[in-house]
Amino acid sequence: MKAINAILMGGVEVLPLVEGGKGVAISTGATCGGWASGGGVGTFSAVNADAYDAQGRVIRQIYHGKTRRERHDELVAYGISGGIAQAREAHERAGGRGRIHANILWEMGGAERVIRGVLEGAKGLINGITCGAGMPYKLSEIAREFRVHYYPIVSSARAFGALWKRSYSKTREWLGGVVYEDPWLAGGHNGLSNSEDPLKPEAPYDRVLKLRQQMREFGLGDVPIIMAGGVWWLEEWEDWIGNPDLGPIAFQFGTRPLVTQESPISDAWKQKLLTLQEGDVLLQRFSPTGFYSSAVRNDFLRDLEARSERQVAFTQEALGDHVCEYGVGPRKRKVWVSATDLQRIQGFEAAGFTEALRTPDNTLVFVTAENAREITKDQVDCMGCLSSCRFSNWAQTEPDFDNGKKADPRSFCIQKTLQDISHDGSLDNNLMFAGHNAFRFGRDPFYSNGFIPTAKQLVERILTGR
Predict the structure, then answer these.
(1) Residues 82 and 155 in one domain
(2) Where do the H-state alpha helices sit in 138-283?
């Protein structure tokens, strides 16, 4: 394997190894500080991060507000206190080595308020902000204000070009690097555009080369590109290392730090990752953000798949082949469906899926009475964890705090499920994000006999290769 040399990132020399941020209490100050102590760039998540009480116990995020707006303000306060707590722990554990980055999602609820609050409360402890999930035009302004470097996450040269021309060109001195997150390989939310086929992955090299060519047009030839998604062994990327066409390259590891001693996920979750098979991670579009995302195909995702399959179109009046009346809800409000779909509905109901829920696309999905109650409760309990949520129809824009669409029962409350799984909830009945290379845990001799490394040991292993 080629020698891995330090590169200049954010004004200092660091190993070109970056921990990928994983939201809702997964990338913590412990994992971040451990990774940075090995000389790389550690990342903690400022997305609904955990805070701790005087005894060091996690403060669970419980909401008391009567309205969504009130609960949203509680969520922002939790996010700020949690982010500050994680920054402090990361700084302490790093021992002055490496770099500490905070990761946020621009489409999370109150993103700007949260990151400003964290940077203000943890001055001097955070070296950079990594940000994706949307088009974070204001990211560079915030970075300049707090004198930290910023690292936008993009999935194409086109996306970076739009960010640069509209905003980032005014603050080039604070651009520490650009994260290219491969939309077919990375875990969590993926940046697939409408012009890209989720079933036809494109080679990352060509896409990163286009990004570098565009960056050179902007005078950014020496700004590192951080390759994220699908990275496991660095020798598999040897043609990238020291490649003059690509310029300075770093590599981001999102899934691998899950299986470390510092990782806060349960032992059962770690063991599950060690036994995944190729194809167990599904690229799907159930997320309330509207983005594609990659997660383990467990009972939670299978239920969402089946829910969408139990779906029929309807009209408000007899039209075309929609000539059969059907009564929806307790009041049996009339809609019209086709004769074929009426037969399907009868089959759904016979199987116990008796409740018809309307979607924004003039369709009905059929669920059990128990599921219908849970969906309705989750929608009512919304605390605005996203800037706009298709599941609950929340939007953080005044005056209505409403995205103008019907709530979509084909999606789910992402805050509820991610909080649950990150605090030892069910692995089968919650969303379990993972990258598409997660099956490699079971094939990697490094993890033989259930070995769980520290984050620093993982960095050392990556540097030495197979």
Answers:
(1) yes
(2) 139-146, 157-166, 204-217, 267-274
